[in-house]
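Model it.
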Amino acid sequence: MNTLKATLYSSVLLSAVSIASPVMATQFIAADSTPGTQACMAVASNKRLTINNTMKSLRISKAVISKKLLCNDLSVGDFVSLYSLNKSVRFLNIDMDTRTSITDLAKAKMPSVVIMAGSK
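Modeled.
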């Protein structure tokens, strides 16, 4: 009886862990080493410190990134909303309240690897 309970508890625990873990994370790969691609990779990292360090090393401002940078031929606002990069949105002060998007639930599966190219 104890082995039955132990098996039942372990199967419940394993199913809870598998549900809580993310299904698929998008991996971004840089197409080249241009400053635009470096800035896009920093935005795609979704980490405030990475974006800040890249901005300092490239000597660009938040305004340049949020208004002039194109990532994979998308504006940064469209790019971050496509991949749900919420921390990048907050750090760059991008207004997402005025954006509307429709997601096709049947096609909501994002590619697992994205080749990044920035502005030239």
